Amino acid sequence: MTRALAIQAGVGALIGAIGLVLLARPALARRPLGIADGREANYAIRLAALMLAMLGIMIAAFTLIFARASA
Questions:
Q1: Exposure string (b/e) for 23-52, b if CB count within 10 Å is 16 or more?
Q2: Which residues contact 13 (CB under 8 A, 6 or more apart)?
Q3: Cα separation of 29 and 42, whole Å?
Q4: Structure pTM?
């Protein structure tokens, strides 16, 4: 695996980890963004966190698949 692919996989893992943390604790995103507490806010933050987690998983997975296919 080249250095660029390793960096890309690392970035994907980092984005996925951030998404999973925010999925478990939406208050960590709500306070800095100044969003009021409520069911709708939690729903929106968890939806965005799930999208981040899936983006990270997809980036890392496609990077690893590309690395294996081109080896």
A1: beebeebbeeeebeeeeebeeebeeebeeb
A2: 56, 60
A3: 10
A4: 0.81
